[in-house]
Amino acid sequence: MKSKCAKIFCVAAAWLFCGIFPSCGGGSEPIVDEKGVIIQDNQVYYLDPDVEGDSLENKTRIKITFAETGFGRTWLENAAKTFVYENSEYWIYLDGDPEVTTGFTNKLETGAAIADIYMVLASNWYDLALKGWIEPIDDVYDSKPDGESGKTVREKTDEVFLEYSKATVRNETKSYVLPWNENVTGIVYNADMFEEYGWEIPETMDEMVALCNQIISDTKGEVSPFVYPGSVGGYFDFLVNNWWLQVSGVEKVQEFFDFGSADVFNYRNAEDPSYGKLVALNQFNRLFGNKATGTYNGEEYSYTLSGSASKNHLQAQQSFIRGEAAMIPNGGWMECEMTNSLPDGFTMRMMRTPYIDDVSGKDGQEYISYNYSAQPDYMLIPSKANNIEGAKKFLSFLQRDDILKQYTRDTGSARPFEYELDSSFDYTDFTDDCLEIWENSDYNYFEQSKSALWLNGKVKLYNTVSPFTRIRSGEMTPAVFCGTEYNYVKENWDIWLSEIGAN
User: Fold this and answer.
1) Quick one: pLDDT at residue 209?
2) By C-alpha distance, which of 458, 478, 276, 302 is closest to 370?
3) Global pTM?
4) More confident residue, 196 or 148
């Protein structure tokens, strides 16, 4: 069916009386909702009919620059409309920029053409706080967006994200960022194709490998089991890091990201933090390596669509939608991101990352389920912002229960705060799958580190080279990669410590 993301855009009449609007001689037609809130040329404002001569000139602007990517802007427009209706002393300028994450730090430093709020994708913010470029927001966390009888933002925030928000600057620990969304990752699959051929959703990796062979056989090699965005980093992490968590558990994986010594890269024994990384890369090799092939009519076919290595995320997703592949590693934003490209009748769904068969489960029976949500996206207020007070008020407002529910209705994604989902809303099957994974995982995990080695770019998740390209080509086995990486890190560890002034 058509994505609900296409149905949630507000249907509002455009007012045609030029004298009402300050921008009516140029720009887009204004759109007005049923309450009289106006959206025009990225401006969101409300002219109060009970205030004589009310106009934009009487209001204070809040400028929000946000990463206009997978989840779009509808959720933010809806939140902004409610905010300005209830707080008509403000108007909001929505500056959507898909590339904001790579360029906003220069604006934080100089204060030139700066926004009051930045909403950016996963990246290192800790160093920006140390430099004094980010406004502390403990007062936002201590506010009560649901009213005096409600919980504070701090009380509603997931504990892991609450800890993530903190930085120690000049011997004072404060909160500097708010989490944006909590991603769900896994494998997106063509539900119509699965139904047509009667394919079962695999629970384990052995079942997944069997499914890949079945896809090749049933489609006579015309449909690849997988396509992937090879020119965009991070998508394989959704699977590999989940497998790593399955093997090592949260504590060992977090021990790795604390980077206490070079030995966190030791992979030889089951108790070593990087042992799970080796096992996870072996699973990757089973699905995406150069020997990951199935046979039809005596001819071998790769599990992955030819040309995937050079595709970006949109190109890979288009191949998936065209039916060239049955599955794609991806996240909960994909349906909303591809709304305008989905043909009528197309249904995508999300499955969990399959379990590794020989990894023990909880109570010796059930598997421990993880949702690897990747590095978090976040919101912040620059210390040089022009309207810090209004920005803080808006950030607190975003954590109100009804606004949190609206976010999930608009994006199909959850936020890491305590709130009830809107059970009356008719979510798509894809969104239902994502929310089920989010609600029923034993752990929702994202990688984080406050190690100076990590923050200064000395150590990375993968060092020397990317393992994925090398393993796919057969140039390296997972064991060779892990051994090469461990030796490299040991050789350079003391040098890195010296370079950051840690020894």
Assistant:
1) 98
2) 276
3) 0.86
4) 196
Among 1, 78, 37, which Cα is nearest to 411's?
78
Are 194 and 326 a contacting pair, CB within 8 Å?
A: yes
Distance CA(241)–CA(276), nearest Å, equals 9
213: number of CA atoms within 13 Å, CB side? 12
Q: How many residues does the chain have?
A: 503
Comparing CA positions, the residue from 27, 26, 47 lying closest to residue 36 is 47
SS3 state at 215:
helix
In whole angstroms, give the CA distance from residue 388 to residue 342. Answer: 40
Domains and CATH numbers, the chain: 25-182+376-419 (3.40.190.10), 185-372+451-501 (3.40.190.10)
Look up tokens 């010296």; give the residue. Answer: 498
Strand partners, 45: 38
pLDDT tens digit sequence for 277-327: 999 999 999 999 999 999 999 999 999 999 999 999 999 999 999 999 999
- Mean pLDDT computed over 493-498: 97
What is the DSSP secondary structure assignment for residue 363, as one 8-state letter? T
Yes or no: say if 425 and 219 are a contact pair by the CB < 8 Å rule: no
Q: Residue 168: beta bridge partners?
A: 173
Average pLDDT of the chain, as a whole number: 91
- DSSP character string of 49-62: TTSTT--GGGSEEE
Which of 483, 231, 228, 225 has its CA nearest to residue 331? 228
Q: Which residue has the tokens 């390209």?
A: 469
- Residue 392 CA to residue 272 CA, distance in Å, equals 43
